[in-house]
Amino acid sequence: VQLQASGGGLVQAGGSLRLSCAASGRTFGAYRLGWFRQAPGKEQEFVATISWSGDVTYYVDSAKGRFTISRDNAKNTVYLQMNSLKPEDTAVYYCAATMRGRWPTRKADEYDYWGQGTQVTVSS
Question: What's the rounded Cα separation, in Å, for the pair 10 and 76?
Fold first, then answer.
């Protein structure tokens, strides 16, 4: 499966952005999907993951209550709605897909397919 992330940009603190990740392939609905991010000089960080059906989600603590991951299997797309953004959310955000690992799939090495990343910059 090929993934294409979009929706990043520059936003003021407190603002919102919605990231999208469009996938190719007919088996999109079989994959668990995740969002990761990497800030300059920092290690890649897990943000959120969603089950193949979309019924179950899991978030890093810093994203709980502010971010929402969702998917539309008919459109082969996964979303990350980000509200109440903070400067520390500034990073390149990546979407990823996997059929491996155990729930919740939080480790980057458990994902097989990655999008190219989209830059999110939050100004103070």
Answer: 26
Of the candidates 21, 16, 24, 30, which has an alpha carbon nearest to the alpha carbon of residue 117?
21
pLDDT of residue 89: 98
At position 109, the amino acid (one-letter code) is D
Q: Which residues of 43-57 are buried (b: 16+ CB within 10 A; e: fewer)?
A: eebbbbbbbbeeeee
Which tens digits make up the pLDDT trace of 51-84?
999 999 999 999 999 999 999 999 999 999 999 9
86-102: b (≥16 Cβ within 10 Å) or e: eeebbbbbbbbbbeebe
As a whole number of angstroms, the distance between CA 7 and CA 80 comes to 9
